[in-house]
């Protein structure tokens, strides 16, 4: 046990899980679009905030590489960063979020600072983190899973989600999460946007071969109820292929050094720390 862990136990606090041990960077591509779909289908305010965003440089449908960097950097800072780094990145993100609010013409009311919307986004990020890990490596044991869950509230509190909003246990979390999925209302505009996102239509033409493979993986990581709402057909042969790919990916990743497994999250964390030191824009 590390000295820091002993100090925490002496104060009655449990040691923090080293999340670098439970993070495969490849899942950002395998399930990134699926996670965006979760966020959008479970909350119309998130959906229209994404589709109507006035922050041109942050539009995932127009600047996917930059938006991807911003999102993955947020994840890296929230999960692996210090309190000060989270504060600095929150301030940078807030600058963009101030422009993300509904207008009189918007079909639904939304505001990027809405703590309830941020709770849902954080819930989707946590779900994606655990779901992809278990698909590649098998189920977490209950004690470890609960500890990871409790410290995952940073996925929301790094922005404006209040700590008390985070469900107290995984059981309460999945009650909340499953109910949102069951009651998800999907309109044609959102479905069309997400189908283009899954196909990686926003990427350059040379990306097309990889895009077809990644569309398959993202469909596989989409919960069945939402998969149907998006109009995808998923048969046993699809599931068998998906299971083989995830199992193989996990087997390979377990033999790689942690630094390689964590890429690109660790590289984005290094880059944002460099930009902080240099006084450069963070978003």
Mean pLDDT: 91
Helicity, as a percent range: 55-70%
What's the total helix number?
15
Major sheet characteristics: none
Class from helix and strand fractions: mainly alpha
Q: Report the end-to-end length measured between terminal Cα atoms.
A: 37 Å
The overall strand count is 0
- The helix/strand order is HHHHHHHHHHHHHHH
Give the low-pLDDT segments: 5-12
Summarize the structure.
This protein has 283 residues and is mainly alpha-helical. Helices cover 64% and strands 0% of the residues.
Task: Explain how this protein is built.
The chain has 283 residues and is mainly α. It is built from 15 helices and no strands. Helix 2 crosses helix 3, helix 2 packs antiparallel against helix 6 (115-137) and helix 4 (64-80) packs across helix 15. The longest helix is centred in the middle third of the chain and has 23 residues, at 115-137. The radius of gyration is 19 Å and the shape is globular. The two termini are 37 Å apart.
